[in-house]
Write a structure and sequence with these properties.
Length: about 80
Amino acid sequence: MDNTNKPSNLQSLDGITLEMIVTYLSENLGWEEMVSEIPIRCFTNDPSIKSSLKFLRRTQWARTKVEQLYLRTTKASAR
C-alpha cells in the first residue's frame, strides 16, 4: 500500500486496526468523552464497537478524526 497520500501524523498507525482504535478509546475515554471530542451519531445513539466500525469504515472524515483522537490520547498517556 502506498502511504504517499496519507497524512504524516497518521503513518504511526501502521499495524493498528480501526477496531483496536475504537476499542481502546471506548475503554479508556468512554463513549461520553468520545462524543464530546467527536459528536457523531454512532457514538451518541446506542454506541457499540460494531456500529462505530460500520460507520467509520464508510466515512473517511470521521475515521480521520477518530484516528487523530487516538493519537492524541496515546501520546498524552505516554507522558
